[in-house]
Amino acid sequence: MIMKRIAQITDIHLNEEWSVKHGSDPETNWKLLLQDVGARGINDIIFTGDIGDASGYERFFGMLKDFDFTVIPGNHDTFANIKPYYNPSYLTGRDEMYHSREDGPFKYIFLDSSTDEISPKQLEWLENELNTPLKILLFIHHPILRVITAVDQKYPLLNRDAVRTALFRSGRDVTVFCGHYHTDDFDKEANITQYVTPAASVQMEKNPLEIIIHSRYYGYRIIEIEDETIRTQVVLNHGSGFDVV
Fold this sequence. Notes:
Elements: E1 4-9, H1 17-21, H2 26-39, E2 44-48, H3 57-62, E3 68-72, H4 79-82, E4 99-103, E5 106-110, H5 120-129, E6 135-139, H6 150-154, H7 160-170, E7 174-178, E8 185-189, E9 192-196, E10 203-204, E11 213-214, E12 218-226, E13 229-237, E14 242-244
Parallel strand pairs: 1-2, 2-3, 5-6, 6-7, 7-9
Antiparallel strand pairs: 1-12, 4-5, 8-9, 10-11, 12-13, 13-14
């Protein structure tokens, strides 16, 4: 019996000409994504960044109101713009959107990489949070482990080596869920397991030489947690409805 099901959605890029230019319709995607999440009986959503232009925030958060949701920012977002629509108590007194919570055998850690790096203050906080007997579920916009793609070479998390080292040194099992690269990827290194989730807007091919953008499909990830077991699958829409792949 599944104890918890979470939809991880990332990179919707609402109200951005860049998305439309490459054939995406983020507004329609957002509506259909949330309908599909609800139809699958999933109530928990974690959005891992790149909402898009601030003019789309009211619609973005308004459509999430019927779900239990957590949002962290991407490099296209700022906390200052998000605050009027989303400023839960756990962010009180902070100028960055990072926090943690515990649930059974897991600690959920949410990081703010909106400046393309993890600030020294946030990194110190992370190292303290990793001092726990619990398994770690870490949500961040940028991947921490390298991905063989041109996007990784041009737009990585600037201090990912420092974050990676902190995770290694913790000795805890860490499962990372992220986005940013607009592709589906899996990697494992020592105690770190990383899932990169496809974008809810356009995708980027895993090409090591150049960034190739397309809008042939869009989607999200389902995370299933039962006892201490994590299972995950990607849900994609190629234009005729959503299918698990």
